[in-house]
Amino acid sequence: MENSGNIERRAQFISKTLADIYPNVTIPLQYTSPFSLLVAVILSAQCTDERVNKVTPPLFSLAPDAAAMARLAPETIEKMIHSCGLSHSKARFIQGCARVISERYGGIVPSTSGELENLPGVGHKTASVMISQCFNGYAFPVDTHIRRLANRWRLADSQNVSIVEKNLKTIFPAAEWRDLHIRMIKFGREYCPARNHSADSCPICKVLLKIDVN
Ligand code: SF4
Question: In the predicted model, is pLDDT for residue 63 greater than 80?
């Protein structure tokens, strides 16, 4: 079992370095309401944020809220979101979410993970993004970038996202979770790709090695 002091020092260094690199933390998906964020997060599966941000304005002009989206045929939504990929299932998830939110919750997106995870196409990660961004709750959504970084930085030793999430929640204070998860995703995309990462030019690992030696 690794010395907990080492893990704590690594975590503090990582958190500070990421905050220095990304002082302003905003989620790259554009949204104006919990419902529009929910739709954007569903669309972002295996799609870039830039592409989602191009698709959502015309979609929300046509259907600005859950009631209006629920009235659209899935085929209409599918055509509008085609360029995001997986459009057949995403369209049905979006329309299904809109219908449930409209009929069961009076058009207001629910704010608990249990309720969110019962919506069509909404898993634990999407529910965590909603809780973190819209409802001021403590959540640490773990995607493939965060799982990769947590393992490379030896903050976790698992490919299971639930275990990685549990480890990160233990290591970092809850007040840091929201900004840290966004910073880790940005760093993963920019500096720490799945392949061809370079420890020599990287602002994190070259220092992490020294922390472990001292
Ligand atoms: S050296 Fe940099 S890019 Fe490579 S694993 Fe470490 S943080 Fe990621």
Answer: yes
Question: What class does CATH assign to 4-26+140-213?
Answer: mainly alpha
Instruction: State phi, psi for 134 to the nearest 5 degrees.
Output: -110, -25
Question: What residue spans define the domains of the chain?
Answer: 4-26+140-213, 34-134
* Pocket probe mutation, ligand 1, options 14, 147, 152, 186, max atoms within 8 Å of Cβ: 152
pLDDT of residue 24: 87
| Arithmetic mean of pLDDT, 76-105 | 97
Q: Give the architecture-level CATH label for domain 34-134.
A: Orthogonal Bundle (1.10)
Residue bearing the CA closest to ligand 1, atom 5: 152
Instruction: Please state whether the predicted TM-score (pTM) of the whole model is above 0.85.
Output: yes
Q: Whose CA is nearest to atom 6 of ligand 1?
A: 205
CA 203 – ligand 1 centroid, Å: 8
